[in-house]
Design a protein that fits this description.
With 478 residues, the protein is α/β, with parallel strands linked by helices. The protein is 39% helix and 22% strand. The strands form seven sheets. The chain has a seven-stranded mixed β-sheet, with helices on both faces. A six-stranded mixed β-sheet has the order 10-9-8-11-12-24, sandwiched between helices. Strands 1-5-4 form a three-stranded mixed β-sheet, with helices on one face. The protein binds SN-glycerol-3-phosphate. SN-glycerol-3-phosphate binds next to loops. It catalyses: D-glyceraldehyde 3-phosphate + NADP(+) + H2O = (2R)-3-phosphoglycerate + NADPH + 2 H(+).
Length: 478
């Protein structure tokens, strides 16, 4: 039926032979918003065959032309920022302003990636043999980076455009083809984004966007022999993928429990501003959100007071009105968050605000005097609920960070640069921010999760390199 968005394969918009669709529920209204095709495994097979064929030709397209096509897609994406942002508002309840900036940031990422790709992929290595014992100078090794083949890109609901292009652009500039499996919520924003690449004139079959039920095509895609690399961002589905995937390079980012360590000499107004931005932006639904505050006891009351004053000013409501706190993405997410809150209540946490939920809308909540026996000290709510743990030494704070299963980012607030560097060295996370909340951006910075937070490294340069392999040609001289 006409109001089901088509999927994209072989340079065309198509209706699935399944005759079935997947409904996207608007988190704010909890009503059906859009429908997308429920593609079949046969349609997945065809898309992967086309991707394989198209990739061989794309790898021969001169690097500058590949970059030119990406710059075009970036420009078209930015031109369409408003309709794409509207999809984000309706599908994932992203506040309108944040939705527009996600699209603009994505255009910038694509362009930066094109430039970076031209630079780093034009360089190879010439190695001579006589540097190794027993060898004469009679072997010349020409080593260069070549594409992996077909890259399966699986972005999460919270950045269905930005975390899609952060996989697609590196893959394409490196000469790979791409199969995009968007999150159900965010799929229509993803399809609109793909249309920008279509308009930019990428070859047929090089890019496809397959929508459908995870139960139907999820494993089929991630275990498919036609896939040469998987780049996944999301929740613990990623752990399952890493166990089932074949012998292919994996780039996984699986969430975090970013800690914010606050020392006695910290600028508490700066901390409070960053706790609000870091803990409550997009209702806490960010991998790099501040997810636990570890504050020295002696300054804890002063910090909690400042944070509470700012929490009371947060606007709660519709994403269309640019509210700070909007509905979390689904009823199951809201229920999970509520479970963590109720557990903290039973175990005696101090509620700085009344707990309040209407449907998927949860009012921002700061929990004080949280202790390690409470689930919220360790689990990732992915919601506007933030625990405060009071510590009596820096070592206690570092211990808590390093005892977590997650190891994505973290931050420390202090005026003492020596302590800041010591704490950064001691925290086992991929990134430590000094005197600012954790964040993935700017997007050319390295970005990696360790332990349960992921595999491999992101950030534009790392992603380009991760989607290539080294090819060596050795010239043997007499
Ligand atoms: O949740 C995705 C994670 O990458 C967060 O990104 O840019 O909000 O720090 P960002």
């Amino acid at each position: 039926d006409k109001d089901v968005f088509k999927y994209y394969a072989d340079g065309e918009w198509r209706v699935s032979a399944s005759g079935k669709s997947v409904t996207i529920t608007n988190p704010s209204t909890r009503q059906p918003q859009y429908k997308v095709q429920a593609c079949t495994q046969e349609e997945v097979n065809k898309a992967l065959e086309s991707a394989k064929a198209a990739q061989k030709l794309w790898a021969k397209v001169p690097l500058w032309k590949r970059a030119e096509a990406l710059h075009k897609a970036a420009a078209i994406l930015k031109q369409h920022k408003d309709p794409i942002a509207k999809c984000l508002v309706k599908e994932i309840a992203k506040p309108a302003k944040d939705a527009v900036s996600e699209v603009v940031r994505s255009g910038d990422l694509i362009s930066y990636c094109a430039e970076e790709g031209v630079r780093i992929l034009s360089e190879g290595k010439l190695l001579v043999s006589d540097s190794f014992p027993g060898n004469d100078r009679n072997k010349l090794c020409l080593a260069s980076k070549i594409p992996l083949g077909v890259v399966l890109c699986i972005p999460p609901f919270n950045y269905p455009v930005n975390l899609a292009v952060s996989k697609i652009a590196p893959a394409l500039i490196a000469g790979n083809s791409v199969v995009l499996k968007p999150p159900t919520q965010g799929a229509v924003a993803g399809l609109h984004m793909v249309h920008c690449f279509h308009e930019a004139g990428f070859p047929k079959g090089l890019i496809s966007c397959i929508t459908g039920k995870g139960s139907e095509i999820g494993d089929f895609l991630t275990m498919h022999p036609g896939v040469n690399c998987i780049s996944f961002t999301g929740g613990d589905t990623g752990i399952a993928i890493s166990k089932k995937a074949g012998m292919v390079p994996l780039q996984m980012e699986l969430g975090g429990k970013d800690a914010c360590i606050v020392l006695e000499d910290a600028d508490l107004d700066l901390v409070a501003a960053n706790v609000i931005k870091g803990g409550f932006s997009y209702s806490g639904q960010r991998c790099t959100a501040v997810k636990v505050i570890l504050v020295m006891e002696s300054v804890a009351d002063a910090l909690v007071e400042r944070v509470n004053a700012k929490v009371s000013k947060l606007k709660v409501g519709a994403p269309e009105d640019d509210c700070d706190i909007t509905a979390v993405v689904s009823e199951s997410s809201a229920k999970f968050i509520e479970g963590l809150v109720m557990d903290a209540k039973e175990k005696g946490a101090t509620f700085c605000q009344e707990y309040k939920r209407e449907g998927n809308l949860i009012w921002p909540l700061l929990l004080d005097h949280v202790r390690p026996d409470m689930r919220i000290a360790w689990e990732e709510p992915f919601g506007p609920v933030l625990p405060v743990i009071r510590i009596n030494s820096i070592e206690e704070g570092i211990h808590h960070c390093n005892a977590s299963n997650f190891a994505l980012q973290g931050c420390v607030f202090t005026r003492d640069i020596n302590k800041a560097i010591m704490i950064s060295d001691a925290m086992e996370t991929g990134t430590v921010q000094i005197n600012s909340a954790p964040a993935r951006g700017p997007d050319h910075f390295p970005f990696q999760g360790l332990r349960d937070s992921g595999i491999g490294s992101q950030g534009i340069t790392n992603s380009i390199n991760m989607m290539t392999k080294v090819k060596s040609t050795v010239i043997n001289l007499p």
